[in-house]
Amino acid sequence: MREYILCLVAAAAVTYLLTPLARELAKKWKVMAPVRDRDVHDTPTPLLGGLAMVGGLLAGGILASKLPMMSAVFDSGRTPLALLSGVAIIVALGVIDDKWGLDAPTKLAGQVLAAGVMAFQGIAIIWLPIGGTFVLDPLTSVLFTVLIVVISINAINFVDGLDGLAAGIVLVAAGAFFGYAYLLSVESGLDRATLATLVSVLLVGMTVGFLPHNYTPARIFMGDTGSMLLGLLLAAGTITLSGQVDPSALTTGALLPTLLPIALPVAVMAIPLVDLLLAVIRRTRAGRNPFAPDKQHLHHRLLEMGHSQGRAVLLMYAWTGLVAGTAVAVAFVPWPYAAGGFIVGLGVLLWLVRRPSKSMAAEGSAEHSGADVRPLRAADGRDSSLG
To answer: Which of 234, 297, 351, 383 pairs with 258 at a CA distance of 20 to 30 A?
Structure first.
């Protein structure tokens, strides 16, 4: 555990220290979220926060390569190279989009390219825990992997609508996933789970380092550079665990090997995926482009109910923690206890959602911190990485 903590601290510290530099670079390059008539922020806000996260990722990865615990990841060299290749493509795509804006087909092509490069180099779903172990043929493996990665990228991008929201959701999701991946990697001795554990802990460090600069009132936004990077890494972590660790290698009992490899990736990304699905259905039923931006995401609805931006963000964190935490808890405790905890948590959250405090609602109406900057930027295509 000490090795993982060191990697987390390194990623967090480097991200935190590089974020002000990324902010100044965004100002120098004029990569800014502009102020427009319908926006509530009163000054242009720098983008490119994702570049600082890249620095944290590299710092944590380099440190990990020197630690004995991570030797199983770096011995072959192929898997880390696959991950870095995908990261390089998605970050370049994000920087270009943040600076000049890209049309939906171009962004989709870039996302497919990044996912395909990773899949062809080994970060791919090899089998599914269906009926024991269902092995995928090479073409199906690559296509399914690309689909999962693209969905993950856009799910995180869709939810990136309030200060600190996307970073915090990924922090909670990655933390939950780390718990299960660590159990398999260290406690069960499965070397193939080590990369998933490392990626998860680095995601936690990156988001911890970025949030102090991004939480309301945000001084910098991650932009598509950051949101697509987080989505790619979250997908890579889940793929290397759920799609490559043979369920038959897991012990029976509390781990529920048949269920968790399928349920856990969905659980850790449940809130972004639900938001993405609802947006596509909503826009399609209205006869609009499913990736045409709007202001009816889950966080917008919380604001309309009277919650302040900060309270809405915390509620979204809590929903993510409830779903992801319950799925992970099944690996550690009997499922009836996990289900009971979920029911209690669900009741508490429903009560909190339905009862926004008047003081918080008043605070929300008075905030001018860029709460709606990214959702309202939707006309220039940055609410969704595809539209």
So the answer is: 234
- Place 329 in a pLDDT band, splitting at 50, 70 and 90: confident
Name the band, by pLDDT with cuts 50, 70 and 90, for residue 245.
low
- Higher local confidence (pLDDT), 290 or 107: 107
Angstrom distance (rounded) from CA 163 to CA 213? 9
Per-residue pLDDT of 186-230, as tens digits, reads 666 666 567 888 999 999 999 999 999 999 888 999 999 999 999
In a domain, 387, yes or no: no
Cβ proximity of 224 and 166 under 8 Å: no
Under 8 Å between Cβ of 306 and 362: no
Closest CA to 330 of 266, 273, 263, 265: 263
| Three-class SS state of 370 | coil
The token duo for 231 is 């989505």
Q: DSSP 3-state assignment of 128?
A: strand
Of 159, 305, 306, 171, whose CA–CA distance to 233 is shortest?
A: 171
**Pairing relationship of beta strands 32-33 and 45-46 according to DSSP bridges:** antiparallel
Tell whether the torsion through CA atoms of 307, 40, 35 and 369 is positive or negative.
Answer: negative
Question: Any bridge partners for residue 45, and if so which?
Answer: 33
pLDDT tens per residue, range 366-380: 443 443 333 334 333
CA distance 60 to 199: 9
Q: Collect all residues with Cβ–Cβ distance below 8 Å to 243 and sequence separation of at least 6.
A: 124, 125, 126, 127, 128, 145, 261
Tokens representing residue 295 in the block: 């202001």
Token pair, residue 127, equals 């089998």
Q: Is 386 within a domain?
A: no
Residue 311 lies in a domain: yes
Q: Is 385 inside any structural domain?
A: no
Domain of residue 54, residue span:
2-380
Counted domains in the chain: 1
- Confidence band (pLDDT; 50, 70, 90) for 253? very low
Q: Is the pLDDT of residue 85 over 80?
A: yes
- Quote the DSSP letter at residue 357: -
Whose structure tokens read 């509620």?
315
Q: Share the mean pLDDT of the chain.
A: 82
pLDDT of the residue at 189: 62
**CA–CA separation, 107 vs 109, rounded Å?**
5
